[in-house]
Specification:
The chain is an alpha/beta fold. The protein contains 22 helices and 27 strands. It has a six-stranded mixed beta sheet with strand order 11-16-15-14-12-13, with helices on both faces. It binds beta-D-glucopyranose (BGC).
């Protein structure tokens, strides 16, 4: 049973000021602890003297035990809380968060978080720094890989599913971990897509686009929130009392723990809002940041600030209480070892069952962008040339932020395909090109690789590699090129100035095309790319993101048709980098793009007419499958509604007209025809992924509430007012944000 308020009151009353400040100190021992059990002496001493409250980045149950034993030697024996970046799996690595969002399958998303919770808790992790719920419409920003994409409704459902999966029904259970919604808030809007850069947005945009997933995650019960590195309209989030205290706590009703991001408190000095560490600590504490990650600015300075009367001890009490409450909720006061005790008794990590979910997630997340003459799925016959550096690779497959995942457990694509085709088709392989040729860039991309390099520059010349690949392609019946980014080409501090597949691999695709065999291009990426040339050259184009541990099996399932790819884009794939930021949910302009370039309308002189200039090459929600799905007309139960309590039922029937099972993502969008302020041309309001056997029909229904039509009219960031205006709305139903049918209703 989690400990009571009285227990925490009593404990708090017995703590010295230094011990309370100690609870706010969140550190990573780094270095040696990666190997298991060695404790950095400084950390050990601080734990024993009550100067550390929580630790992150510990990689084994043995190390957790060692640290927890040290805490048991402290005066009050307050247990430590262990955290880790469990972003898309712990040991069993699932597709990237952006890819999981592309599945539009929230049961699957929840299941991946549940498995991650079980695996992480088995080594003693109590809290995970996930889910990242930063809406992002800026694919130059590398952290879009960790995000659920561009849409607030998709991101909100994702946030809820993740929180449910991590926390389970009882946070004190040994298999539950505390979720941490991050990064609060606006981080996905970094100017120029440069990581950590400033964010400037209207209060209404903040409330309508960037805040909803946090609100949804809070409502789902998330126990913690992490502050973001960015400034928002000039105020760094680590010093943003308005957004943390007034909006998050008072407005959204969040009662949990707010942690800083890595050195985020200290960075207030670099942001030039604090003169020194002490001032930075005061600003952050007053803003509502309870724990100071890594910087130790709280530990070093808060005591003196209290003594000098610059902060009130009550403010430290409030933060400390939240740390103690989190520990109580996690069951740590009852038994600090209960997660590792449970973990030791079980073989819960990287099980067949966990791998099966990871395998299934690959097909669910993969997005088929083009499939001329039904080239995919491939028959298991003849010779298949599998070309590309990423085709026989373990190191890149987990993608970014798989800190506990290991390349050694990954099934490479070549292995998966050979296994699936055994005895039926021959799979030939050539590298064809380096991921990148530029050695400076390669060194940057290899930044995290101590043993295994993710970018290996071949000893052969580019021409030699290309010739080998072309030769193999010539001997084959079909060519599958696996191309794209290296794992650290997206992720933290991996912003890009272009969104192209790296040039050596582009050359490879051109050369393979020239061979004249049917060409499948599989793209590994952590962000939306501008696939304009590849969409021309390839006969079939599949976005496989970074698929994780089971990529080889999962991709073989897709390529040979054991599974249909059923992902849909969670973010627009632009025509070119110059188009970003870009979203389907843009506002109308006074001079709308008329469908082809026309002077004095909103578009680009150097973009062809075929692509809408105000939307991407491949729009949000788009994705093909192996079976055509027919839509009936959308139906509504009434066309005239009135009042805030009314509700609309929207239905559509969908039928699998093909010969293969598939799943359709039915999407519901709304367009407010006239309002007091311009409203987006379309906004997602609901979605449902339905499995369909060949010939099967399903009736899909959505309920639209009056609140779904409301929008923010905030003039300041702490104004949570939303209004709904009477008027006419088009209710769109369809297979993507671009391909919908609609009915008009009025709602007064
Ligand atoms: C990231 C966070 C992460 C933290 C701890 C930071 O650099 O922004 O998302 O949780 O490091 O690893």
């Amino acid at each position: 049973m989690p400990k009571s308020i009285a227990f925490i009151d009593d404990l708090l009353s017995r703590m010295t000021l230094a011990e309370k400040i100690g609870q706010l100190n969140l550190v990573t021992p780094g270095g040696e602890t990666l190997t298991g059990t060695v404790v950095n002496t400084d950390v050990a001493d601080k734990i024993k003297t009550g100067r550390i409250g929580a630790i992150f980045g510990v990689k084994s149950a043995e190390a957790v035990r060692v640290f927890q034993d040290l805490a048991a030697q402290s005066r009050l024996k307050i247990p430590l809380m262990f955290a880790e970046d469990v972003i898309h799996g712990q040991k069993t690595i699932f597709p990237l968060p952006l890819a999981l969002a592309a599945s539009w399958d929230m049961k699957l998303v929840e299941e991946t978080a549940r498995i991650a919770a079980v695996e992480a808790s088995s080594i003693g992790i109590d809290q995970v720094y996930a889910p990242m719920v930063d809406v992002c419409r800026e694919p130059r920003w590398g952290r879009i890989a960790e995000s659920p994409g561009e849409d607030p409704v998709l991101a909100s459902r994702y946030a809820e599913a993740m929180v449910r999966g991590f926390q389970g029904s009882d946070l004190s259970a040994p298999t539950s971990v505390m979720a941490c919604l991050k990064h609060y808030v606006g981080y996905g809007g970094a100017v120029g897509g440069r990581d950590y850069d400033a964010v400037d947005m209207s209060p209404a945009t903040l409330h309508d686009i960037y805040l909803p997933p946090f609100a949804a995650g809070v409502k789902a019960g998330a126990g913690s929130v992490m502050a973001a590195f960015n400034t928002l309209n000039g105020t760094p989030m680590h010093a943003n009392a308005t957004l943390i205290q007034r909006v998050l706590r008072q407005g959204l009703g969040f009662r949990g723990l707010v942690v800083a991001d890595y050195t985020g408190v200290q960075e207030l000095i670099a942001h030039a809002v604090a003169g020194d560490k002490a001032e930075a600590a005061r600003l952050a504490l007053k803003a509502g940041v309870d724990c100071d990650m890594v910087a130790e600015a709280y530990l070093d300075t808060l005591g003196a600030s209290v003594a000098a009367g610059l902060i009130d001890e009550a403010e430290i009490d409030a933060a400390c209480r939240r740390v103690l409450e989190a520990k109580a909720d996690l069951g740590l006061f009852d038994d600090p070892y209960h997660r590792i005790t449970w973990g030791r008794a079980t073989q819960s990590v990287l099980t067949e069952a966990n791998r099966a979910v990871a395998r299934q997630a690959v097909a669910a997340a993969s997005v088929l962008l083009k499939n001329e003459h039904d080239l995919l799925p491939l028959g298991k016959k003849g010779r298949i040339a599998l070309i590309g550096a990423l085709a026989d690779d373990r190191v890149n497959m987990n993608g970014t932020w798989a800190v506990s995942g290991s390349p050694s457990t990954v099934v490479p694509i070549l292995e998966g395909l050979r296994e699936a085709a055994a005895g039926a088709a021959e799979i030939l392989h050539a590298k064809g090109a380096n991921i990148v040729d530029d050695r400076v860039l390669a060194a940057r991309l290899n930044v995290h690789d101590w043993k295994d390099l993710s970018v290996v520059i071949d000893d052969r010349t580019a021409e030699e590699m290309l010739a080998e690949a072309v030769d193999l392609a010539g001997q084959s019946d079909v060519v599958v090129a696996v191309v794209g980014e290296a794992r650290e080409y997206s992720g933290e501090s991996s912003s890009r100035i272009d969104l192209l597949i790296p040039e050596p691999q582009k050359k490879l695709i051109r050369a393979l095309k020239a061979v004249g065999k049917p060409l499948v291009v599989v793209v590994m990426t952590g962000r939306p790319l501008a696939l304009t040339e590849e969409a021309e050259l390839a006969d079939a184009l599949l976005v496989a993101w970074f698929g994780g541990t089971e990529i080889g099996h999962g991709l073989a399932d897709v390529l040979f048709g054991a599974q249909s790819p059923t992902g849909r884009l969670p973010a627009t794939f632009p025509y070119a980098v110059g188009q970003v930021p870009v979203t389907y949910a843009h506002l109308p302009t006074g001079r709308p793009f008329p469908g082809r370039f026309q002077k004095f309308t909103s578009g680009y002189v150097d973009m062809p007419d075929e692509v809408p200039h105000n939307d991407g090459l491949f729009p949000f929600g788009f994705g093909l499958t192996y079976a055509p799905v027919a839509y009936g007309p959308p139906r509504v139960d009434k066309v005239a509604l009135a009042g805030d309590d009314d509700r609309l039922t929207v239905s559509v029937s969908v039928t699998n007209m093909g010969k293969r099972p598939t799943a359709e993502v039915v999407q519901l969008y709304v367009h407010d025809l006239k309002a007091s302020v311009s409203r987006p041309v379309k906004q997602l309001k609901g979605f449902s992924k339905v499995a369909l056997e060949p010939g099967e029909s399903a009736e899909v229904s959505f309920t639209l509430l009056a609140g779904d039509l409301a929008f923010s009219v905030a003039t300041s960031v702490d104004d949570l007012t939303r209004i709904r205006e009477a008027g006419d709305y088009d209710i769109h139903v369809g297979r993507s944000s671009r391909d919908t049918q609609h009915v008009r209703i009025s709602w007064n």
